[in-house]
Specification:
The chain is an alpha+beta fold. It has one domain. It is built from 19 helices and 13 strands. It is globular, with a radius of gyration of 24 Å. The chain starts with a helix and ends in a 7-residue tail after the last helix.
Length: 465
């Protein structure tokens, strides 16, 4: 425990003791690097990590999606590895995040794969490398693995920052400090006290989790302040009126025009709310893929996200930073503000056109970590199915509830849900929905912030008078 504490980033925190609020924290690059790394972390990994710390994904219904995949019989998935891809998805920036002072790279993520010529490093084992050669070797990093003498991962090693209670990351400035005090109404300096704290993994996870629903994550985490209890309610998504069958007219991509997914919604006609969907594997593949998307993708591609918390402030701080002054490179900034999927996880019929990161070349890895930082092991040459087929086996039919719980389709279970909801059978109707990329993005947004994802994404809302 003492060793763990010595590795934890330390912060100076300015506290208004009268209001029990954090004004701001002072930090060097170590802690800011850790916070920024969450932009590259897949949603499925964040959900799993926060559950391990007795926290709960506080918004939307992606937690339900994660748990239902966890409980789904393996016979419905292409392989055990596919299930692992969803429950423990790898980050495209994982190889860099290993150098963080606090990193969240799992021990079961220590395996990488290279072809016979050693041209690239991949987190997932596939049948063939993009160069055409068979995957022939597994490599494991030796501990500890760190970037030799570079200092810092995303942020320059000498940079220091102020982090406000609502997650704005700002350059050091006396006038900014005074402005924050005035905004908090702290006119009497006698109530302002300085504290020095160590931040461990538990605290970082709580900070990120609180930032989804609270405007004061530091106060909640460091002071256990109840300040946000009145402001942490989920803001319901309000989408503009739409037809459940309209297609997107503004997209230029060939795949979005050609690829469509059909499903049937079982709807309570009385309140125009979806109870569940009857869907094939392609729809379940789509919603399962949401868990592999990095957190920063949601903030980048869905700027209208109705978040009640302040996570968007963290993202906007990164976006607004001058690379020459504060970040290690343009490449590192792009990794944070436009994060991509880990190479090897996208599938061929994916509706949402999120890009995969490029495989780092083995020469790049060697230059970063040194030639002897990895242990090599020959693996069998037996064929490995690629991810092109998606995650689920077909043909299969599934029942997906409004809050994204997946189970095998069962009319009896459907009837039980209808009866449990005290809905007259005469009020139940079926509606067919066709999903293209626009509808898939709406569902992605709904899943992130709403507890009624199918209803908010697909049901036509009456315009407000």
């Amino acid at each position: 425990m003492a060793h763990e504490a010595s590795q934890s980033p330390s912060l100076k925190v300015l506290v208004d003791e009268e209001k029990n609020r954090v004004v701001f924290a002072e930090s060097d690059n170590d802690f800011v690097d850790v916070l920024f790394s969450f932009m590259t972390m897949p949603i499925g990994t964040i959900i799993r990590l926060t559950r391990e710390q007795a926290l709960k994904w506080g918004i939307g219904c992606l937690n339900n999606l994660y748990e239902s995949i966890e409980n789904l019989d393996d016979k419905y998935l292409q392989s055990e590895k596919r299930k692992e891809m969803l429950l423990c998805p790898r980050s495209a920036a994982e190889i860099y995040s290993r150098n963080l002072k606090l990193h969240f790279v799992d021990s079961n993520s220590n395996e990488y794969y290279v072809c016979g010529s050693g041209c690239t490093l991949s987190p997932y084992k596939t049948a063939r490398c993009h160069c055409g050669n068979d995957i022939g070797y597994m490599v494991k990093p030796k501990n500890p693995v760190s970037l030799p003498g570079v200092g810092g991962v995303f942020v320059k090693p000498t940079a220091r920052f102020m982090i406000t209670d609502d997650f704005q990351v700002l350059p050091m400035s006396t006038m900014t400090c005074l402005t924050l005090l005035k905004e908090l109404g702290a006119v009497d300096g006698s109530t302002i006290k300085e504290r020095c704290i160590n931040i461990g993994k538990d605290e970082v996870l709580k900070l990120i989790n609180c930032s989804l629903t609270s405007m004061a994550p530091f106060s909640e985490t460091v002071l256990e302040s109840p300040v946000s209890k009145t402001s942490s309610a989920i803001r319901r998504v309000e989408f503009s009126p739409r037809s459940t069958t309209e297609s997107q007219s503004g997209m230029d991509t060939t795949r979005s025009k050609e690829a469509k997914i059909a499903l049937k919604l079982i709807i309570n006609e009385c309140n125009n709310k979806a109870l569940y969907a009857e869907a094939e594997k392609d729809f379940v593949d789509l919603i399962c893929s949401f868990l592999t998307f990095p957190l920063g993708y949601f903030l980048n591609k869905l700027p209208s996200l109705s978040l009640k918390g302040c996570l968007g402030n963290l993202y906007n701080s990164i976006k607004d930073f001058d690379v020459d002054k504060y970040l290690n490179s343009e490449e590192m900034k792009a990794t944070l503000v436009d994060p991509k999927l880990a190479p090897g996880i996208a599938y061929s019929t994916q509706l949402i056109l999120i890009k995969e990161a490029l495989h780092p070349s083995w020469s790049t890895v060697e230059s970063l970590f040194g030639r002897n930082s990895f242990a090599w092991e020959i693996i069998s040459q037996s064929r490995v199915a690629t991810i092109r087929e998606g995650f689920m086996k077909g043909p299969s039919m599934f029942m997906v509830t409004d809050n994204l719980i997946i189970t095998p389709l069962s009319p009896i279970s459907g009837l039980s849900l209808i009866n449990k909801s005290n809905i007259p059978i005469s009020d139940i109707v079926e509606r067919e929905v066709t999903i293209g990329e626009e509808e898939a993005l709406r569902l992605l947004e709904s899943a992130f912030v709403s507890r009624s994802a199918l209803t908010d994404a697909f049901i036509l809302k009456e315009p407000k008078q």
